[in-house]
Write a structure and sequence with these properties.
The chain is about 50% helix and about 10% strand. By secondary structure, it is of the alpha/beta class. The strands form three sheets. An eight-stranded mixed sheet has the order 1-2-4-3-5-6-12-13, sandwiched between helices. It has a three-stranded antiparallel sheet with strand order 7-8-9. Strands 10-11 form a two-stranded antiparallel sheet.
Length: about 525
């Protein structure tokens, strides 16, 4: 009898355990289903969001295209119109194919990994194995999507109070003003005294994406301008006024830029008793070179630093290849122009950003960027990957700092990307009716440092180093991409901190400036 009771007890105990296991499995599957429904909803919201962000500049570009083509259609024969539009269709198909291939590839990589994880989670659930079960797996997916679609954009918006210049706060002193520009001195943000008789540096930001990249995250030590100021260098940043509300900016020319730069250099030379170092970042470097070669800065500027600056745009392989595939009829700045309430025309910054998106379609396609961000925050072993301030600030810059550009300034850059520098070094831009030639940098005694990034997908090495065919210049190469000099390497204790000299003997831009100041003082003492 006792044996029968024991057998019955074991049987019902096993049955109860089996029922409990089945109930737990059913609950896990039910909860996973609920989480999956949430995940699917967020996923489709993400798709619509990324597509909308990608397409917004397209609608603006389409409006400009329609307005320009309304006139061109009447000026060309039907045969020419049909031919050009067929070529444009072929071009669009090629761009779409690039985006489609990269999108399919990244979706395949992501979902292949997720399928493997899902199968393991299913087995863990069914056989009560250790590890992530199906409920935890789906919950992780929903959490990942929520982070990318909702939390990441909020972090990008919130970083605005820490990112870039805030001239209304302490740490900046207004030093000069014209109709078009403001000149601010950048003060150290640590206990360092500025050398009033030191050699001043004036930093020129690009027109297209503004100045804020040069004061990336000052409170974290990631600030190009503060890297100079914190070494006691008299540091100044030339800031373009708001183009939407300043007619003088809307109509400005290269000559206006040069004359305003001249005025600021006169202020700095008088204040510090030394000639100025011009330091241009990206497009700002090209503008700085033009200003020096114009002759207007003679006796005011004796040194030049360019960082990731396109000096001969025709040597930028990716953009040139893109332009070559575009039918000649559509290589016209008129497609990017827009009318302001003032009646002035400017080049729409969002349309220009659209051009760069198309050029790099394999990295800018909307679904590609969605999956890229999913993979960025999808930690191994289910760990939560935090949204860094660096990632948030970089995206804040790319999203919110796109600026409209004066037509004449854009035309100078456009000519640089469509007309090569001549064999004797003449640049395809004139100022004050004067030809500009790289070789004149040597005649003017300009000490020249060229910095470029070895993984820059915006400004090719060949474009940045174009002046070397005509003048002697010091060259420093930095790891990483286009913005790294202003972000990663502006940190004082980073591997390639810009105030250091490197193992190969090259120098960062701050070290270059400090050495120039030392040489200036040694020369003065000998004199």
């Amino acid at each position: 009898m006792k044996e029968l009771i024991d057998v019955s007890f074991d049987y019902y105990g096993s049955l109860a355990k089996g029922l409990e296991q089945a109930l737990d499995t059913a609950m896990a599957i039910t909860n996973a289903t609920r989480e999956k429904t949430t995940a699917i909803e967020i996923y489709w919201n993400g798709i619509f969001k990324y597509i909308n962000e990608f397409m917004t500049p397209f609608w603006i570009a389409l409006n400009s295209f329609t307005n320009t083509e309304r006139e061109k259609l009447l000026r060309n024969t039907p045969h020419d119109n049909i031919r050009d539009y067929l070529e444009l269709l072929q071009f669009n198909i090629q761009v779409a194919n690039k985006g489609m291939r990269s999108t399919v590839r990244i979706m395949h990589d992501f979902h292949l990994e997720e399928i493997s994880r899902a199968f393991s989670a299913w087995l863990n659930t069914m056989f009560e194995r250790e590890g992530e079960n199906i409920e935890a797996f789906v919950s992780r997916q929903a959490r990942l999507l929520e982070k990318v679609v909702y939390e990441y954009p909020k972090a990008i918006d919130d970083i605005g109070s820490e990112f870039g210049f805030h001239f209304e706060r302490d740490g900046y002193v207004k030093a000069g003003e014209t109709e078009r520009f403001l000149l601010y001195q950048v003060l150290p943000n640590r206990k360092v005294k500025v050398r009033e008789k030191g050699k001043p540096v004036m930093i020129i930001h690009p027109y297209v994406l503004g100045a804020n990249i040069l004061a990336f995250l000052p409170n974290e030590g990631k600030s190009y301008v503060h890297a100079f100021a914190n070494q006691g260098v008299p540091t100044y940043i030339r800031i373009l006024k708001d183009i939407d509300t300043t007619p003088a900016v809307q109509t400005m020319t290269g000559e206006d830029d040069a004359l305003d730069t001249k005025l600021f250099c006169e202020i700095l030379k008088k204040r510090h008793g030394a000639q100025v170092t011009l330091n241009g970042f990206c497009q700002g470097g090209f503008i700085a070179v033009l200003n020096i070669l114009s002759g207007e800065l003679d006796g005011l500027v004796d040194a030049l630093i360019t960082c990731v600056a396109p000096m001969d745009g025709t040597r930028s392989k990716a953009l040139v290849e893109y332009m070559e595939h575009l039918p000649p009829r559509f290589r016209d700045l008129g497609y990017a122009e827009k009318d302001l309430p003032s009646g002035n025309k400017v080049v729409d910054g969002k349309v220009m950003s659209w051009v760069y998106k198309l050029k790099s379609m394999e990295k800018e396609a909307p679904l590609y960027t969605l999956y890229r961000d999913l993979m960025l925050f999808d930690g191994s072993n289910g760990r939560d990957v935090k949204i860094t301030t660096t990632a948030a600030a970089m995206n804040h810059w790319l999203i919110y700092d796109r600026k409209d550009i004066p037509v004449a300034i854009t035309k100078m850059s456009f000519d640089s990307y469509t007309i090569p520098v001549t064999q004797d070094g003449t640049i395809p831009v004139t100022l004050f009716g004067r030809k500009l030639n790289f070789r004149d940098l040597t005649e003017k005694g300009i000490k020249f440092l060229i910095c470029y990034a070895n993984s820059d997908d915006l400004v090719d090495k060949e474009s940045a180093l174009a002046p070397l065919d005509y003048v002697d210049a010091e060259v420093t190469v930095f790891p990483k991409g286009h913005g790294a000099i202003a972000t990663s390497w502006s940190v004082p204790d980073s591997e390639f901190a810009i105030q250091n000299r490197y193992p190969d003997g090259s120098r960062g831009p701050v070290r270059f400036q400090l050495d120039l100041e030392r040489e200036m003082k040694e020369g003065s003492s000998r004199g």
